[in-house]
Please model this.
Amino acid sequence: MKFLMISCKKATWLVSKKEEKRLSWHEKWQLRAHMALCSMCRRFEEQSGFIARMARQIHVHETLSDTSKEKMQQALVREH
Amino acid sequence: MSLPLLNPDRWINDYADALYSYTLPRVNDAALAEDLVQETFLSAWKARNSFKGEASEKSWLFTICKNKIIDHYRKKARDITQSLPEPSTPDGLFDESEHWLPESQPGQWDMQQQPTDSKEFYAILEKCRKKLQEMQQAVFSMKYLEDLDAAEICKVLNITSSNYWVLIHRAKLQLRGCLEKNWIHAK
Model:
């Protein structure tokens, strides 16, 4: 059975490919077989998905200093 | 000249903070984000006569800003001379038989975190993103924050799709490892 298995390195690569929906039928099968037996690669897939979800939801509320805004205003006025 | 639909006098007051908040996580560099916001206003001013009022003033400014950010990635990619990784480039995470090295094995994460903790998560994500190589940072931002597809990203950065796959995959491997070392819920 072992000789049929893909490595962890290959499995993580396929996880990234899967996220972009680019797996062939054969690769899907290989990945499923690997995932059934490898808890570390299962974690990798979950965590990789989590990072992607969190990154898509990045929202920051930052404010520029008054000095910076003043500088921008002056640069804009110079263009008038 | 009349500009009935635009209010340039109020731009900085009304939109500087919003544009800055949009730009900062995308370029992950405060000084650069500020420069890009300033350039956005200057370009908008120069292009004011082409504004037809089809979009709101706000979304028009955001479109200009988004283009500035993508231009920045494009220029950056042009300046980078370091060679792009191939699938065979070692990543230092797997052993010769391609199993996880003991120190890089994924541990258990608590991903059910509360909103107060997500602030902490983002602070660490920001630090970890800074540790990525520049091309990895660019690809990561364009994919997850700008939501561009692979073909567009390759075009902007002038890279092959094989380069793209390796960059995005390596970025994820590195970020995962960095988060695991630094984020409390990954211990």
Observations:
- Chain B has two domains: 8-79, 102-186.
- Helices of chain B lie at 8-27, 30-46, 57-79, 115-131, 134-145, 150-157, 161-182.
